Amino acid sequence: MEQAYIEDSMEELLEYQKNGDLEVRNRLVLSYLYIVRSAAVQLRGAAANSGQEEDLLNQGVLALMECMERFDASKGAKFETYAYIRVRGAMIDYIRKQDFIPHRTRNMGKKINEAYMQLANETMREPTLEELSEYLKLDAGKLNQYMKDINNSAVLSFEGMLNEVTGMAVKQELPMTDMDLKPEESFMKQEIQTILADGIDSLSDKEKAVISLYYYDEIKYAGIAKIMGIGESRVCQIHTKAILKLKTIMEEYMRG
Fold first, then answer.
1. CA nearest 240: which of 202, 217, 214, 216?
2. Are 15 and 154 in contact (CB under 8 A)?
3. Quick one: 126 and 250 in the same domain?
4. Tens digits of per-residue pLDDT, 234-245?
5. Which domain holds residue 79?
6. How many domains does the chain have?
C-alpha cells in the first residue's frame, strides 16, 4: 500500500515536471508536507516565537517546491531523501541569515563560562542558576534564556557546517540507507559517522550522557535535569560545550 502511494506521488511529480500544472504541484506539496514538518521539528528551538516558526515552515515549503522543480529521477536517489536534506539545509541557512540569535547573546557565552568556572573553583561544586545570576548581576530568567539561545546558536553552527560540507544532517528523521547514495557519498557518510562516534567517545561522562539522552532518547532538558540530578541550565550548558567540542573535531577532520 505504502509502495503504491510512493509510486503514485512519483508519477505526479514527473507529470508536474513536464507540464507545470499548479493543481498537481499543490497536491504534491500536501503529500510531501511531512518532510517540511519533520525538518522543522528538529530546529524547533531556533525560532523564538510563533511568527518565526511560521516563517521557518514557509521557507521549508519554498525549498520543497524548488526540489520538485530540480529533482532528477535518473540519478537513482529517492525524492524524499533528496528533499529532506535540502529542505533542512534551506531552513538552517534561513535561520542564520535572519540572525535569530542576537549578537549580544553570542557575546554572553564567554562571560557565562568564565563565571561558571570561577564559582565552581570557589565553591568546589557546580554553581546554581541563582548563583550565576547574582555573580553576573543578571536576572535568572534572562540568564536562562541567554543560555538556551547560545545553545541553539552552537547547534545550528555545527549542523550548518555538516550540511555545507556533506549535504547530510547529523541525525536523519527519514530512513536513509547506503542504497540511496552513490559509492563516494556512502563512503563519506560512513567516515563522518565514524568521526562523530569517536568524537562522542572523547567527551566527558556528563557530556556523553546529555548527548545520548537528548538526541537518542529525545528527552528535553527538564527531563535530563531530573535524571542527572542537576539544574536545567546546567544541562543546557553541558550540551553547548559538547556540541562545540564535536564542531572542533569535525573542523579538524575537514582541514585534513
1. 214
2. no
3. yes
4. 888 898 888 888
5. 1-100
6. 2
The CATH number given to whatever domain includes residue 30 is 1.10.1740.10
> In degrees, to the nearest 5, what angle opens at C-alpha 132 toward C-alphas 42 and 152?
15
CA distance linking residue 202 with residue 49, whole number of Å: 35
Which of 59, 81, 100 terminates a domain? The answer is 100
pLDDT tens for 135-174 read: 999 998 888 888 888 887 777 777 766 665 555 444 443 3
Q: Is 0.85 surpassed by the pTM of this model?
A: no
Domain closes at, from 100, 123, 144: 100
Q: How far apart are CA 16 and CA 140, in angstroms?
A: 54
CA distance 42 to 91: 11
Enumerate the H helices of 71-102 as residue ranges. Answer: 79-98
CB 106 within 8 A of CB 137: no
Measure the CA–CA gap between 84 and 101, rounded to whole angstroms. Answer: 24
Grid cell 520538485 in the structure block, residue: 68
- 44: number of Cβ within 10 Å: 10
| Angle separating helix axes 33-42 and 22-31, nearest 10 degrees | 40
Does one domain contain both 177 and 156?
Answer: yes
